[in-house]
Structure formats: structure tokens, C-alpha cells
Task: inverse folding
């Protein structure tokens, strides 16, 4: 499997596109913020613009590992656990923590993606993909995140925007 060098997260498509050397290698359905796009601290929005993967958390843990404050709780997600904590915002399996790369837009006071704890993370399989429902992060299916995690190096470029994937790139997957 080729390492990826760019992730494009399209808010319009609710998809993540993974590229290596300009070639589209994977596409996963995601769920971004219910509150839409935005960079402000405490907005509950998904920040746009250029980012990079600053931390990779959870390597070697089981699929469904439950995280709180970026630490494994020792729990593995189950329907029983979900019933016990029905309002919990589940962060599962792995975390790819993002940092913004555009000062004053998604980096710095009041807009800092890293300080806002913006992640790509797993979510229960019962949660819908392809529709915005998160609290600002980018949610993926656990199986998709496991594949992505192994292919994304630290500091991998991530672009989050409102444009759909370019048609030239989408043709690569056909």
C-alpha cells in the first residue's frame, strides 16, 4: 500500500480523498460538523484550509478503542457501552490530530485547529456517513480509519474545503 501525501476533505461531498503523487488512491465517506464550516474557537464547526497531521494516536489498539482527552479509556465500544452513555460523542479506534497551517485563519488566537482538538477519528458504525453531524471533527468508519491511519505519515498535508473532488481525480478510482 502506498503512503499518502495529501488528504482532501470535501465538505460538499462529505468525502475524504487520499492522494499519492497526484493520483487518487482512496475515497471514504465522512461526517463533518453539523454546524457547517468555520474556524472560530467553540463554534462546533469544521475548520477549512490547509492543515497537516500533527499527531497519530492509537497505533496498535483494537478497533473500537474508546478515547477521552486523546487517551484510551481501556474500553472497546459496544452497544452496551453506547446504551450506558447515549449522549457521549464517541471518539473511536484512532486519532489523526490536525494543526492548521494558515496563520490568522486556522492557526493562532481564536481560530487554532490544534487548540480546538480537531481530529479525524472513528465513530460507531451505527452513525450515518455522508451527512454533517459531528461537533467539528471529521468522523470516519472505523475500518476506513484503520486503513487510512497506516497510510498517512506524520505531517501529511490535509486540505479541508467546500469544493467537490476534481473530476480528473475521481476518474482515477474508476
Result:
Amino acid at each position: 500500500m502506498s503512503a499518502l501525501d495529501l488528504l482532501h476533505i470535501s465538505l460538499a461531498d462529505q468525502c475524504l480523498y487520499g492522494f499519492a503523487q497526484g493520483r487518487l488512491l482512496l475515497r471514504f465517506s465522512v461526517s463533518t460538523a453539523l454546524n457547517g464550516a468555520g474556524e472560530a474557537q467553540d463554534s462546533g464547526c469544521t475548520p477549512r484550509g490547509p492543515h497537516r497531521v500533527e499527531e497519530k494516536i492509537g497505533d496498535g489498539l483494537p478497533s473500537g478503542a474508546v478515547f477521552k482527552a486523546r487517551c484510551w479509556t481501556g474500553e472497546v465500544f459496544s452497544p452496551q457501552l453506547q446504551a450506558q452513555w447515549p449522549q457521549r460523542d464517541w471518539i473511536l479506534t484512532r486519532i489523526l490530530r490536525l494543526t492548521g497551517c494558515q496563520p490568522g485563519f486556522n492557526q493562532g488566537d481564536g481560530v487554532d485547529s490544534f487548540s480546538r482538538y480537531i481530529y479525524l477519528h472513528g465513530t460507531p458504525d451505527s452513525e450515518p456517513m455522508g451527512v454533517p453531524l459531528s461537533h467539528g471533527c471529521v468522523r470516519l468508519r472505523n475500518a476506513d480509519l484503520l486503513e487510512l491511519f497506516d497510510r498517512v505519515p506524520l505531517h501529511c498535508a490535509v486540505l479541508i474545503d467546500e469544493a467537490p473532488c476534481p473530476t480528473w481525480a475521481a476518474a482515477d478510482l474508476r
Helices lie at 79-84, 142-151, 167-170. The two ends are 18 Å apart (CA to CA). The beta strands are 6-10, 15-20, 23-29, 49-57, 65-68, 71-76, 92-100, 119-123, 138-141, 157-161. The first strand starts at residue 6 and ends at 10.
